[in-house]
Write a structure and sequence with these properties.
single chain, rod-shaped, four-stranded antiparallel beta sheet, alpha+beta, 477 residues
Amino acid sequence: PAYFSGIFSSGHGIEEDRPVAIDPEHPVFRFCRQHTSVITQDLLDEWIHSHDITPEEWFAQAELMIPIHAQDRLTALIVLGGKISGLPFHREEHEVMRNLGPVLGPSIENARLLEGLENEVERRTEDLNTALIDSLIKEKEITESNTIITRQNEIFRSLLETSTQIHQIWKLDTLFSFTLDQIHALFPELGFGIILEGARSDIIESIAFVGIDEKERDIILANREMLLDDDIDGILRSDLLVKGVLKDTRIPEEIPHWTVLPMMLSTQRVLGKLIIKGTLDQTSHEVISVFLGQLSAVTQSKLLMRELEKMASMDGLTGVYNRSFFDQEHMQAIANANRYHIPFAIIMIDVNELKAVNDYYGHERGDEMIVRVAHLLKEVCRKTDIAARIGGDEFAALMPSTTLVQAEGVVQRLRNFEEHLSMLCRHKDGRELLVPIRISIGVSASDEVPTEEVFKEADRRMYSDKDRYYAGRERYR
């Protein structure tokens, strides 16, 4: 009669269920296992009294109990309280309740079976998912391992190819460009440059860049004497910012990092520098160092061969270089000036009065005259300059990394030495004379005329000086 009374007096809301925990060993289950039909309240009370059982609230207020059996086993138990109206259940309702057992028993068993299957499917699905995850992890590990192996094979092939081919390359510029291309192919995110210095710090023997733009090259070359400074990264960054090549940014990743590694000879003397633009990790540093060690050894060998080539390129009479070697170095100087703005100068020299000396004193004295001029040129030129005999009585001096002003200083030294240059000759009539040796000189440099015109301009000025000499006017200085 009271709403939500009896079995349902839980205080819960209408739509809420109240779980009831019943011990599996509760006597009611033993009682219900013995009945297959509806258990009425009278039958239940009789059993309670006969077994001296104190029922719980839900048990005592049960109006009907419907045992649900399946395969001779109690599967479920339906407990009904009294009607709200207080009236008893009538016969038709009892009939419905009685038919619930046979209907619900198999349904509950099927539900349990399906639930078991679902649990098994879920368990197997979890196992499959676990196996799939393990498989994906292993696949990832294998992929990563294959990537590492592929990368190692790529590095090994590149090292093998480099070591095979660099021995076959003669020109240093070509050697450096090839090696840098090989390294850059392995590390495309990095830029590289090689500077090989000559006997003087201001002389560049050879140079190559890849992945570094022209403005950056100019700043690197301007700071080449400080490239092995501990703070070269800061020096280059600062200069790049000052010159406007690098934009001022607050994002560190946008500012390239600079590293310089020395090219070492077996004597531990620094041969050159490898410039690296970009951030190096440990692996890339180690790989690049292997390339550098290989390149340094081959470069040292090439330089030794170059010295032998120089010895083989000497003019037999004068001991200076021949025309062929001069032309080779001249073309290299033009390339360096055009690509890297490294200046060069050329001094042209012609021996005056050579024909007269040959006619009056003999060709031996004429040869001596040529030899003395060659020795004068060698005396004045630096070790890094190329003094060559390019014709019978014509000489040229190629001076790398030299401006016109610097070359004119060399010309002045030549003029100073020339004042004291002479040789003892015997005239046809037997008289011995001290004959002065005089030369005509022309000089030009790539910082005043186009690189391809330097030789021609120096030659033109030399002939102008010769004309003035024979005209008795002051010579070109």
